[in-house]
Amino acid sequence: MMKRVFKTTIILMIFSLLFSCGGKETVKKEEFDPVLYLKKADELVSKKEYEEARKLLLEIKNRESAKEYAPLAQLKIADSYLKEDETELAITEYRRFLELYPESTYAPYAQYSIAMAYFRQIESPERGAGTAQKALEEFLKLEKMYPRHPYGEILPLRIQKCRNIIAEGELLIGKFYYKKGSYKAAIGRFEGIAKNYPDFKNLDETLYLLADSYKNLQLIDMAKQYIKILKEKFPDSQFAKKAEGLKVQ
C-alpha cells in the first residue's frame, strides 16, 4: 500500500514539473520596440487613452537602449497633455523638453507650442491681456532663441494680435480713469500705449484721449503736441476731426 502511494506521488510530481516547464515555453515575451511603442502611443492618444499612451512613452524615455527616441517621446507626452486640455501640464512638459534637449530639431516646435498654449487662452482685452502678455513673451523667445524657426509667415500675425490685445487692455483701463476724471492716471496708461505699441490699431483714439486729458489738466502745450501727432499720423481719422473741437490751437 505504502509503495503504491509513494509511486503515485512521484508520478504526479513528474507530471507537474513537465506541465510547469511546458507552460513557461508557451508564454511569449513581448520584445521592446521603441518605434512600435511610439506608434501604439499615437493610437492610444487618438482614442483619448492618454494615461496608457504616456506609460508607453515613459518606458521609451527610461530605456537606455531607446535614448535616441527619448526626445520624441518627451514631446509626445507634452502633446498628449495639450490634447487632453491639461494646458499647464503640457507647458511644463514642453519646458522640460527644452531643458533636456535645447539643441533638438524639435526645440522650435516645443517653444512655439508653449506660446500657442497661452495664445489659445486669449479671450478678450478685458480678460486676455495678461495671457496675451505671456504668449507674446514666449513668441519673442522663439524669435530670439531659434531665428531659423519654420513659423515665419504666421508668427508676425500672432505677435501683432498679442500686442493689440495688451494695448486694448491698457486702453480700457485708461478710459476707466479718464471717465472718472483721474486724468493723470489715464495719461500714464495712454502714454504707455503710445510709447510701447506705436502700431496699435486704436492709436488715433489713444492720442485724442491723451490730448483731451492734458487739456483738462490745463497743460495746453502737451495737448497741442498730441493733437499735432494725431493729425500727422492719422489725417483721415474721425479722432483727428474730433480733436479740432478741443479748441486748444
UniProtKB/TrEMBL annotation:
PROSITE patterns: PROKAR_LIPOPROTEIN, TPR. It comes from Thermodesulfovibrio aggregans. It comes from the Bacteria. SUPFAM superfamilies: TPR-like (SSF48452). Pfam families: YfiO. TPR repeats lie at residues 71-104. InterPro entries: BamD, BamD-like, TPR-like_helical_dom_sf, TPR_rpt. This is Outer membrane protein assembly factor BamD. Residues 39-225 form the Outer membrane lipoprotein BamD-like domain. Keywords: Cell outer membrane, Membrane, Signal, TPR repeat. The lineage of its organism: Bacteria, Pseudomonadati, Nitrospirota, Thermodesulfovibrionia, Thermodesulfovibrionales. Transmembrane segments: none annotated. The keyword Signal applies.
